[in-house]
Amino acid sequence: MRLLIVDDGHYVVEYMKHLLDWNTFGIDQIETMTNSIEARDMLTQNHIDILITDIRMPEVSGIDLLQHIHQHNLPTKVIILSGYSEFEYAQQGIRLGALDYLLKPVDKDDVEKAMSKAINNITKTRPAQSVAWENFDGLEYLLSVLGQNETLRKAYDVYTEFLGERRFCCFKLEGFTQEYEDVIKHAVGDKLDRLVWVAGTRLFGLVPEEAAAELTIKLEQLVVSPPFMLTDRNVTRQMFYRFFLSEDVHSDDFIGIFNRSPSCGDWESAGNIIRKYDQIHLQKQKVIFLMETILYVYLTDKDRDPSETVEWIFNQLRYPDELSSTLMDRVNRIRNNKQMSIQTIVDKVQTYIEDHLSHGLSLDELGKVAHLHPVYFSKLFKQETGENVSNYISRKRLEKASQLLQDSELRVADIAQMVGYRKNQYFIQLFKAEYGVTPYQYRRNMIHQ
Known about the structure:
This protein is of the alpha/beta class. 59% of the residues lie in helices and 11% in strands. It has three domains: 2-125, Rossmann fold, CATH 3.40.50.2300; 135-332, no CATH class; 356-449, Homeodomain-like (Arc Repressor Mutant, subunit A, Orthogonal Bundle), CATH 1.10.10. The relative contact order is 0.07. Residues 347-445 form the HTH araC/xylS-type domain.
């Protein structure tokens, strides 16, 4: 699915673009625009599933984009962004068909709820005959059926409805050859061949019942499962685990596991995941837990390799204790990469602050350095460092002042100016509150040490 984010503020579109793991909502393409006229043209010329737009923009407003979608009968679902003072506009947007509106500065949880609402609306209103097979990722679909990510499942509901008109069988075939793969893919057709995978020297997959009957005649070594309906999720899961992984699972086995999974909240660290894994004793429940971990990695690792995922699911998952260390390392890497990008922003601003202590250092100034809205940046800084931006600036100013008092003979009034305090008396007051003595006493104490 395609998402378009439109706001005349560059920092807002950048913030929104990196706010969520959009893949978890089935979004595989994200477009961002600061020019609303070009955005209107894009809506007409390209299929956009979801639009997130600011309501007040020069030339073409969010309301204008909504009217454009309405007039041209476009299927795009709209979420609007507005400030408190623009509530009447937001109401007008809802009347024109916007699914939701979010108040700036937007909150991550609110965006997730609005996106879930939009995805749900799309799957309800999109007819089965308009299934977009070009967007069908067979491996992601399999994980949506086996896992517990409700948003992903809803994104694929339209495919399950379409496929649910037929019964399917699991199959496996030892001794991979290109000829075998071609025979199987020809039997299932050019859409369902995405449910056929190669792992090592074996072929695995899901095929319609009638294709399975045809293939068992052509390929003697082919092993197939009893038929089942993809619309019955529990039966599909039970069949999959029994046939491919020799694990006899029941619906009760999933309940406790999913409460520990990433789909039910963010995992704080790879160490935390290992602790959760170590609490599981039954082999089949370990396998279910690691399947959830594979789903998490598949949705969040931008450098994922689908063939590696297939290898994990069909070959390595039978030995969960061996696979667990590989997956924990991968989760750790994903989280470190995500953390690094945020840490890079914070480090950059901290360096800027230390190099410009004589400046006013307003949130607006720091927001420009971070390329983020000042309010968003302030929240991010506190979240990452545990300290308010203003506290950090004050602490660094006083640290610099204490250093200058020790290492130079500059007047106290000059030092106050150099670390950003225009009023000498205010500087002395803050310094005493921090160090327990006035700047003069501090210097004298240092000299006599």
